[in-house]
Here is the input.
Amino acid sequence: MKAVSIIGMGMGPEDLTARHKAIIERADILVGGRRHLEQFNDIPAQKKPIGKDINGIIEFVRAQSKLQKIVVLASGDPLFYGIGARMADALGARRVRIYPNISSVAAAFARIKEPWDDAAIISLHGRKNDDRLFSAMEGENKIAVFTDPKKNPAWLAARLIEKEFF
Here is the structure.
């Protein structure tokens, strides 16, 4: 079985290093979100879009990686609630190579020119429980929060007002 490469896409294709690009160009199969795959229409690799069936994608990768070089294009950091952790758990850590990239948290703090070594990083994306957010707010100076379409900034603002965190 061949190792599966998982590449963090960073903030966009301009963040890919020469090493990232070379790995992508050598792929037999590219797996990723549609918007990421569209960035590589010029690469002759087979494209496999990731949908809601993550287990199906993992099984596809497991089966195809026996003979094919597979590269998974990860949105965000592959190991922060990402596909990298799921692949490593499912395939075994020895079978994956993870190539991180700039994270949205690092980019956000860079834009505001603020250090983030004392920040709590919380994800509400797809999470049922938001307790960690509110417990972090009691003790942390800075918090970066990942949201999703349901638990979006408006939802977060309403919860902060409701819990009197203002």
Remarks:
- The chain has two domains: 4-99, 104-162.
